[in-house]
Amino acid sequence: MDGKIAIFVFVLIARLGSDQVNAQVCTHPYCRTGYTYDAATNFCYKYVGTPATYAAATQYCANDCSAIASIRFSQENDFIDKLILQSNTNVNKKTWIGFAVNTQAVQWQWTDQGPITYTNWYQNKPVTAGCINGVAPWGNGNGCVNFQPTGSGCDGGSNYWENFYSCATALPFVCKQTPICGSAGKSS
């Protein structure tokens, strides 16, 4: 049984990383309980408000037959921004996404192994007092990326990605999975 689950998770992660938009054709796609469907990407997303380290968040998503969210284009970034804002009632809304440093290759990559087709790094433009300047170096244990949704006061109030926190910091996170193809009557 464990071997079958491992193969399923590997295939799921490989599929999540294969395209910007899920090419699976469904007449009536729907999501598992707790996930929200996005028609623009044809994927399901789940905000998990219980803070976890980056490794624990990645494992949680894998155990839930998903992957920690990768972001392939601006519309997907905006959908995740809205999902976080609707779901998170805390003052600090920073949330893990599936972008991290591969220490063996010494480069950024999506944890689902998909292509890097879009980034939204923090730039501190316009320069705002009290905001850090740009992306932190990842050599200090902060090689994991968090999403800061719209409204922080930094980067002109726009949403952005940063790697300011150590991967060992507990933050909420977003999982991403392919939808279920169903028959009429099912919805997200």
UniProtKB/TrEMBL annotation:
UniProt cross-references to SMART domains, sorted A to Z: CLECT (SM00034)
UniProt domain C-type lectin: residue ranges: 40-176
Entry keyword set: Disulfide bond, Signal
Domain of life the protein comes from: Eukaryota
Protein name: C-type lectin domain-containing protein
PROSITE patterns: C_TYPE_LECTIN_2
InterPro entries listed in its UniProt record: C-type_lectin-like (IPR001304), C-type_lectin-like/link_sf (IPR016186), CTDL_fold (IPR016187), Snaclec (IPR050976)
Pfam hit, one: Lectin_C
Residue ranges the record marks as coiled coil: none
Signal peptide positions (record): 1-23
